[in-house]
């Protein structure tokens, strides 16, 4: 008998060093906004407002903490030495790019934090977590250790939750977490089909691959995660992303497809072998028929899909059908806005569209779906997890007050070496682990 389960969404709280450093080759927004002045306070408040709106609608909403940045241990490991201020000064003088990488607030995009398999799918019937090594980008490759600590602190009880270390940090096992992983199912508590989408086969040089931009996720990484999580072959589908899409700026599958329940909402250029992918899902999905909501290039050109982040939306169950939570940019691009109006008129599974303003994050290539990690939990697991990170009215109030007190309204590249910034961040994060009841998770706290 399937247990009752919900999908909880854990959004990354935007960190105090949110900035635009142009660190992600292949991510069009990150490159085009390089060196713009950011507003960390606005970014964090936009993220919290999104969480609050969804929590108010009755969705289970959690918060994952930002990481300590600039990350002094990373700078030390690269040979900068002396006091923290000496290190910041030397890094700012000698290598502003390294300092920028060690200062990115990129942990806000928790769709990349980990891959999570619900207990209904796994061999030992526990929820499995593997933090993503994010080895494709240096600034993101330093996330997984603290991410792992935060997840272990929140999902601590080993009788319900299993935690794996991230995969080896090399390009052959490049893993970007849930951004390339979608689960289709009849109901959250039923065994589902886990769709792993990869950009490249690492150990086959002849296999199709993008020509311009890097493929961040490999088949080998996806297969390793499926093995670690104890997923049966009959419940797993591996699909190659269309290299053409990667070269157009689709650096993760969640920039071109999103699934929920029995519904897969995707662009016709999402997969290399569309028909095979759909057939493989159909043959494995039990208890429901796959609803494939396909968007053609004629309806929405690939370029508009990337610019609007139409597919980087959250697809959520409501009592009246599914709701698509889209970024505001979707209403600024004519083809996309028109498409959304048509979509809700259709008799399909998506019955409403809601717009969220996450512009500060969008300018670095992160829409509503990038900002959240989905964790399906049955009633026992929900009870067993740490509740201090679940958004209530009171926690929302506390976090907004905390952001107002600690965050700057302007940050540019020249500010990253400011020793005051590091002090502000540590003070803020020390208070935050207290607010969220997480214990010590940061290097500076250990
Ligand atoms: N699609 C998903 N799930 N996530 C979006 C991640 C955006 C992130 N941007 C950045 O890391 C840019 C940082 C900078 O340039 O300052 C990235 O490219 O990894």
From TrEMBL:
Family of this protein: Belongs to the succinylarginine dihydrolase family.
Subunit structure comment from the entry: Homodimer.
Keyword entries, A-Z: Arginine metabolism, Hydrolase
Pfam families, per database record: AstB (PF04996)
Pathway linked to the protein: Amino-acid degradation; L-arginine degradation via AST pathway; L-glutamate and succinate from L-arginine: step 2/5
Reaction(s) catalysed (UniProt annotation): N(2)-succinyl-L-arginine + 2 H2O + 2 H(+) = N(2)-succinyl-L-ornithine + 2 NH4(+) + CO2
Organism per entry: Marinobacter iranensis
Entry's EC annotation: 3.5.3.23
SUPFAM superfamilies in the record: Pentein
Positions of the catalytic residues: 176, 252, 370 (nucleophile)
Alphabetical list of NCBIfam families matching this protein: arg_catab_astB, PRK13281.1
Chain's role: Catalyzes the hydrolysis of N(2)-succinylarginine into N(2)-succinylornithine, ammonia and CO(2).
Binding site for substrate: 21-30, 112, 139-140, 216, 254, 364
Catalytic EC class: hydrolase
Encoding gene, per UniProt annotation: astB
Organism domain of life: Bacteria
Recorded GO MF terms: N-succinylarginine dihydrolase activity
HAMAP family: AstB
Name of this chain's protein: N-succinylarginine dihydrolase
């Amino acid at each position: 008998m399937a247990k009752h389960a919900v999908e909880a969404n854990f959004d990354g709280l935007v960190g105090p060093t949110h900035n635009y450093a142009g660190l992600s080759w292949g991510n069009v927004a990150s490159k085009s906004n390089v060196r713009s002045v950011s507003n960390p306070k606005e970014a964090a408040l936009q993220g919290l407002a999104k969480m609050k709106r969804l929590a108010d609608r009755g969705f289970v909403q959690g918060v994952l903490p930002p990481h300590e940045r600039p990350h002094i241990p990373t700078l030390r490991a690269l040979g900068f030495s002396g006091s923290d201020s000496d290190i910041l000064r030397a890094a700012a003088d000698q290598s502003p790019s390294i300092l920028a990488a060690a200062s990115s607030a990129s942990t806000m995009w928790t769709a990349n934090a980990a891959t999570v398999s619900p207990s209904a799918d796994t061999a030992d019937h526990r929820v499995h977590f593997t933090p993503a090594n994010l080895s494709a980008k240096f600034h993101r490759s330093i996330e997984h250790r603290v991410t792992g600590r935060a997840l272990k602190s929140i999902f601590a009880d080993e009788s319900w939750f299993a935690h794996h270390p991230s995969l080896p940090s090399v390009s052959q096992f490049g893993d970007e977490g849930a951004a390339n992983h979608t689960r289709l199912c009849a109901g959250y508590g039923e065994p589902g089909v886990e769709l792993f989408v990869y950009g490249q086969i690492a150990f086959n040089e002849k296999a199709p691959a993008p020509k311009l931009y890097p493929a961040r996720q490999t088949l080998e990484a996806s297969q390793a995660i499926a093995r670690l999580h104890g997923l049966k072959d009959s419940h797993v589908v591996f699909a190659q992303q269309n290299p053409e899409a990667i070269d157009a700026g689709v650096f993760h599958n969640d920039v071109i497809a999103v699934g929920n329940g029995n519904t897969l909402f995707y662009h016709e250029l999402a997969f290399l072998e569309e028909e095979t992918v759909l057939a493989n899902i159909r043959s494995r999905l039990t208890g429901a028929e796959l609803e494939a909501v396909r968007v053609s290039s004629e309806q929405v050109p690939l370029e508009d899909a990337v610019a609007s982040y139409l597919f980087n939306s959250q697809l959520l169950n409501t009592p009246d059908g599914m709701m698509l939570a889209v970024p505001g940019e979707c209403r600024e691009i004519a083809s996309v806005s028109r498409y959304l109006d048509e979509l809700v008129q259709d008799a399909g599974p998506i019955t409403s569209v809601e717009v969220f303003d996450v512009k500060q994050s969008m300018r670095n290539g992160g829409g509503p779906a990038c900002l959240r990690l989905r964790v399906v939990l049955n009633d026992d697991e929900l009870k067993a997890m740490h509740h201090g990170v679940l958004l209530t009215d009171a926690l929302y109030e506390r976090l907004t007050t905390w952001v107002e007190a600690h965050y700057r309204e302007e940050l540019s590249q020249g500010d990253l070496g400011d020793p005051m910034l590091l002090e502000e961040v540590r003070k803020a994060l020390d208070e935050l682990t207290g607010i969220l009841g997480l214990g010590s998770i940061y290097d500076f706290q250990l």
